[in-house]
Amino acid sequence: MTGPPPTHRGVGNDGQPHHSGSSIENHAAESLWIQTAPGDTTIVAVPAEPARLSMLRALSETLCLTAGFGIGVANDIRLAVDEAASAMVPHRTPSTNITCEFAYDKQSIVVRVISISRDATAFSGAELGWRLLRAVTDTLETTRKAFDPRVSGYPAEVKFTRNR
Questions:
Q1: pTM over cut 0.85
Q2: Alpha-carbon 47 to chain mean position
Q3: 63 alpha carbon, distance to own chain's centre
Q4: Distances (CA, A) of 146 to 80, 110, 119, 126, 159
Q5: Are 31 and 87 a contacting pair, CB within 8 Å?
Q6: Which of 7, 42, 66, 116 is deepest in the core (most CB within 10 A)?
C-alpha cells in the first residue's frame, strides 16, 4: 500500500471529518487522521513532532489489542512504532507527518512507519534504537528513496513484521 487514495477522509484535531485531495506525503502536518482500508489495514498520521508521538504509541497498542494480539505483542509493536517514529523526528522536513500503516491477519501484523527526511543519510541502522527494533520484531527493513522535489525531501520508511 503506498498511501491513501487521492481523496482520503480522516478526523481533524477538532474531531470533525477531514477531507483532503493530497497524498500522505503531501498532507500538511496539522491534524491527526485515521483511515481504515479494506482488508484490515488502518492508517494513522500525526505531525512529525515529539509531542505527537504519544498518540502513535497509544493507537498502535490499542489497535493490536483490538485485533486480538496478546499484550506482549501489543507492547512490542508500541515500542517498535515509538523507536521508528522517534528516529524519524530529528530528520523530518518542516510540516511533515509521520504515517503508520497497520495491516494484520491471523498470523502477523505488518507496520510501515513513513515520513519525509530532509537528508539522505538519516536512519543508518546502527543506533541502539535499531538494535531494539530488531529484538522486538520478526522482520525489519528500512527504505530511503531519492530526493522528491514534490515533498522537498527524501521519502523514508521503516517496515517491520511481528508474528502472533
A1: no
A2: 11
A3: 13
A4: 25, 24, 10, 21, 18
A5: no
A6: 116
